[in-house]
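Recap slide: Diaminopimelate decarboxylase, sequence and predicted structure.
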Amino acid sequence: MLLYGTQEVNEKGHLTIGGVDSVDLVNTYGTPLIAYDIALFRERARAFKETFRAEGIQAQVAYASKAFSSIAIYEVAQQEGLSLDVVSGGELYTAVQAGFPRERIHFHGNNKSEAELEYAFAEKVGCIVVDNFSEIELIKRISAMRKQEMDVLIRVTPGVEAHTHNYITTGQEDSKFGFDLKNGQADEAFYRLHNVEYIRVLGMHCHIGSQIFETTAFRFAAEALMNKMIMWRDEYNFICRVLNLGGGFGIRYTEEDAPLAPAKYVEEMASVVLSMTRQHQYPMPEIWIEPGRSLVGDAGTTLYRLGSMKEVPEIRTYVAVDGGMSDNIRPALYGAEYTAVTANRMDEPQTTEVTIAGKCCESGDKLIEQALIARPQEDDIIATFCTGAYSYSMASNYNRLPRPAVVFVEDGMHQLVIRRETYEDITRLDIPLQAVKRGDTI
């Protein structure tokens, strides 16, 4: 049976996470419930950092918080000495509320508004990752108006095709992100930022995609950026102090997935940079990476209660849970695959094939089409593994369903970190129509 992190089966035949019985979690907090194995998050963070230390490389490991954003996860990231990748004013505000050190916040995004950029300046974030020419002009204007220095990285697309789903590839030439490395856009961006008062160009950034299992694409990307950095040195006498190689390291959602150990991705990218800096006598840059899914993805487990069941003879058996695409859109969005178990009967054979359906009014609301669980019974607890990344962060109130609660578990302890939404929460922003006379404008 495929278990993750601290997950075990106790003497009652129940799935435990972080030493806590999943049945107790459900009885305490209700369902749907996303439980995070914080020990696994810490283990992954330390593994990335230790790999850089072992190589003798100055580095920053920035948690790509779009995978899962909350005050509590930002607090854990700070405890582990991580930096933070935010992509919106909302994520930055959450980081501020968490008291995250501003100098370790990197502000990303392909369409940062002027208000968001001004907020980043006001909070004195560590750097802004510049994504397009209009943003360059905004940053120049804001920095000059405020007479405030700002460090920037230039995001480039290296033209690397990563082997992943089309919706989550970002490093190819046809991308909404960054400046193309091959058609001169990256050089033009550097030219517009270099030697501008108050702007300090740290170096370059790339991100080639997500859920990538092999290292070849990462090596090609590192080589492409190093070649450009060497060219800028030779032509402009400019040295990039930072090389940010992004994230996208894959995790194991199903038994068919075969990701590498997180450290392996770092070793492969670092080997390219080390080799090229020695060969071309280039000062070794500080390497930054941005793991998100690989830090938090398999640390998350969603717990549901099983409700209705429907058998379609000789076709399939549907079992419905009390969540679905409202708390995990990934299967409907791009066919993401998951593994599930019957958490309250782990000691029974998990061999009954069912389709686990959600409760949203969409035919496509199917979490797993060929799940193997114990023979289903009403009120069973169904645990879906590896839901820590892009589940809660992409959750919605479709069908006016409340977003689930989130709990952290570690060393036999559990703590609520995001409360379950109520119906009152869902309608809180609604404004009723006022009484009007016929003919008046509504």
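The first strand starts at residue 8 and ends at 9.
The domain at 108-291 is CATH 3.20.20.10 (TIM Barrel).
(End of recap.)
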